[in-house]
Amino acid sequence: MASRTVAEQFARLDEFTSILAAAELNAANDWEISFTADISANYQRWRGDMYLSDTQLEKLERIANH
Question: For residue 7, with 0-12 CB atoms within 10 Å meaning exposed, 13-18 middle and 19 or more buried, which class applies?
């Protein structure tokens, strides 16, 4: 389960930003709010060069799809 960059995982960065935005809106508890805020802060800093593990992406997608 190696980490890959967001650019490696998504053909278009707007696909990732849509998932992130949905996760931020749907975060339902303190942990989810903190997790999505941390991912968002890292993405703002690193954009497509941000590393994201498969597990982090799975959790983000789960929050986004609440």
Answer: middle
Eight-class DSSP state of 1: -
The pLDDT assigned to 5 comes to: 97
Q: Quick check: pTM over 0.70?
A: yes
Phi-psi region for residue 47, left (φ > 0), alpha (ψ -120 to 50) or beta? left
Average pLDDT score over the chain = 96
Only one residue has tokens 């992130």, namely 20
- In degrees and rounded to multiples of 5, residue 5 shows phi and psi of -70, 160
Domain range summary for the chain, segments of one domain joined by +: 4-64
Token representation of residue 43: 């993405």
Percent of the chain with pLDDT over 90: 95
Distance CA 22, CA 8 (A): 21
